[in-house]
Amino acid sequence: xxxxxxxxxxxxxxxxxxxxxxxxxxxxxxxxxxxxxxxxxxxxxxxxxxxxxxxxxxxxxxxxxxxxxxxxxxxxxxxxxxxxxxxxxxxxxxxxxxxxxxxxxxxxxxxxxxxxxxxxxxxxxxxxxxxxxxxx
Length: 136
Known about the structure:
The protein is an alpha+beta fold. It contains three helices and five strands.
């Protein structure tokens, strides 16, 4: 189900709780909402649809990826950039990393560790910031 976009900075500024099996429906809603906004959005965190759980959805060069409980294990290659957000107006400066190693769980709760680079890495960093209550 496509959900409304949360724009309340107080809600978005809260740290999200770990995702569990009962949150799979919210994960699917998040993916459907991202796909519905694909013309102007490349990633979303669950708090952007009003669900305070550590779930993100990312457009990885045309392939959609759902990540539950993502954590950045390692990062390298810092650079300065600007980002916008569907939940917030305007564009803000931020520091990102060219390469990140992420541990996450699939919707089947299988653990994965994968390295992402370039724009996909930037999207994931933005969405993990959302999970951590960091507004960029």
